[in-house]
Amino acid sequence: MEIDAWVWWLIGAVGLGIPLVLTAMPEFGMFSAGAVAAAVTAALGGGIVVQVLVFVVVSVALIAVVRPIAARHRSQGSGFTSGVEALKGRQAVVLERVDGNGGRIKLAGEVWSARPLDPEASYEPGRQVDVVEIDGATAVVI
Questions:
Q1: CA distances from 80 to 76, 77, 83, 85, 86 (A)
Q2: Closest CA to 40 of 5, 90, 2
Q3: What pLDDT score does 84 carry?
Q4: In terms of pTM, does the model score above 0.85?
């Protein structure tokens, strides 16, 4: 029993897809797509030289086009801050006196423990303060 060339290309595509999943290297996915294109070429009756050329051209084209786009998106970042990073720079209201011993503030609708950036400073209830840092579960304020 002889296996058609297009089946071998599909086996190669799956084989290239496995390292894609295991290593998260997108280049393997691009090679896998090239192998699928070569399988289609083989199924349509293209010779082995045409199949290899299609594999190489599709793979190289995908790498040449997709990698720079992905690198650009990766370097730009999302521009969206979340978690404690999103709380830095926000204003809060002092609920309980904040001094070197601690205190409580209302920040983003939640009650947080707080301490002043300057250990000598103190802030009375009702005063607005700015959050400069989050240290564990404590907001550092000025």
A1: 11, 8, 10, 10, 8
A2: 5
A3: 84
A4: no
Q: In this structure, how many other beta carbons lie within 10 angstroms of the beta carbon of residue 102?
A: 13
CA separation, residue 114 to residues 67, 103, 138 (Å) = 45, 5, 5
Q: Coil, helix or strand for 95?
A: strand
CB 94 within 8 A of CB 103: yes
The two structure tokens encoding residue 103: 């205190």
Question: Across residues 3-30, what is the average pLDDT?
Answer: 92
The pLDDT of residue 83 = 82
Q: What distance separates the 2 farthest-apart alpha carbons in the chain? A: 87
Range list of H helices, 78-133: 84-87
- Number of Cα atoms under 13 Å in the Cβ half of residue 127: 17
CA dist., res. 83 & res. 61, Å (int)? 39
Query: What confidence score (pLDDT) does residue 8 get?
Result: 96
Find residue 138's DSSP bridge partners.
113, 135
Predicted confidence (pLDDT) at residue 114 exceeds the cutoff of 70: yes
Pairing of strands 128-135, 91-99: antiparallel
Residue type, 135: D
